[in-house]
Specification:
Elements: H1 2-45
Length: about 45
């Protein structure tokens, strides 16, 4: 019984870690897209 609990806890921690990594990557991608848009607008103005 104790082993099962340990495995569950590890799985939970791992899944939370993965979710946060994915969220982080999505946010970074979104921010990069915004920055690229801003630079494109600046280039057009020049």
């Amino acid at each position: 019984m104790k082993k099962i609990k340990i495995v569950l806890v590890i799985l939970l921690i791992f899944s939370i870690y993965v979710i946060f990594k994915v969220e982080d990557n999505n946010r970074n991608y979104y921010i990069n897209q915004k920055i690229n848009k801003i630079y494109e607008l600046k280039d057009k103005n020049i």
